[in-house]
Design goal:
The chain contains three helices and 14 strands. The protein is α+β, with helices and mostly antiparallel strands. The chain has a single domain, classed as tt1808, chain A (Alpha-Beta Complex), CATH 3.90.1570.10. The chain has a six-stranded mixed sheet with strand order 2-5-8-9-10-11. Strands 1-14-13-12 form a four-stranded antiparallel sheet, with helices on one face. It has a four-stranded mixed sheet with strand order 4-3-7-6, covered by helices on one side. The chain is globular.
C-alpha cells in the first residue's frame, strides 16, 4: 500500500493513510470489517470510551457477542455510533499531542478491555516506529520483528513492515509490506 497524502502534521497524514489503507490491509470482507477514525469504542468495565484511529472487528467477535454495534437513533440502516466491547485490533497513530495517551494510558485500558492486538505507529521521526503488540500475562508485549523487519499479527494472519521514503518533491511516501 502506498500513499502520497501530503497533509501536515505527520500524524494527520498517518491517520488518513491508515484509515484509507484499512480495506487493503484487512481485505477479507467475509470475515472482518474495518472502521476508520471516529468510531467510538466503549468498554465500561475498563473505563474506556475512545475514538481510535482504526478499529478492526472480525465477524466472529460480533457473532460470539463479544462486541455490540450500537445503532444510531436515526432510521438509516447500517449506521452505528458505537462499538461496545473489545475489538480484535486497534491502531493508534502517535502525534506530538498524543504520545502519553497513545503509548501509556490507552494500551493499559485496551488490555483491561480485552483487545487482542494493538498496532502503534509513530512516523514523527526516523526511523519509523511500527510495532505490533499482542496480549501478554499483565499487558501488551511487543512482537519482535524478524531479520527483515516484519512483525507478525496473529489477528490479521500475516506479517507487516512499514517503510518511508520520499517522492520527487521530497514528500514522504509510506509503503506497508505484507507477507503471509
Amino acid at each position: 500500500m502506498k500513499t502520497n497524502n501530503c497533509e501536515y502534521p505527520p500524524s494527520t497524514r498517518w491517520r488518513t493513510s491508515a484509515a484509507g489503507s484499512a480495506p487493503t490491509i484487512f481485505r477479507s470482507e467475509d470475515e472482518s470489517t474495518t472502521s476508520p477514525a471516529r468510531s467510538r469504542v466503549t468498554c465500561p468495565d475498563a473505563d474506556l470510551s475512545v475514538e481510535p484511529d482504526v478499529v478492526f472487528l472480525s465477524h466472529a467477535t460480533v457473532d460470539d457477542g463479544l462486541v455490540k454495534l450500537v445503532e444510531r437513533a436515526s432510521e438509516e440502516p447500517d449506521r452505528f455510533i458505537e462499538i461496545e466491547g473489545p475489538p480484535d485490533l486497534i491502531v493508534e497513530i502517535v502525534s506530538d499531542s498524543s504520545v502519553g495517551k497513545d503509548t501509556k494510558r490507552l494500551p493499559e485500558k485496551y488490555f483491561r478491555a480485552g483487545v487482542k492486538e494493538l498496532l502503534l505507529l509513530d512516523a514523527r521521526k526516523q526511523p519509523i516506529k511500527f510495532a505490533i503488540h499482542a496480549r501478554g500475562k499483565r499487558g501488551f508485549i511487543r512482537i519482535e520483528p524478524d531479520k527483515k523487519g516484519f512483525a507478525r499479527s496473529e489477528v490479521l494472519g500475516a506479517s507487516y513492515h512499514l517503510e518511508r521514503r520520499r517522492d520527487r518533491k521530497g514528500w514522504p511516501l509510506y509503503e506497508l509490506h505484507e507477507k503471509s
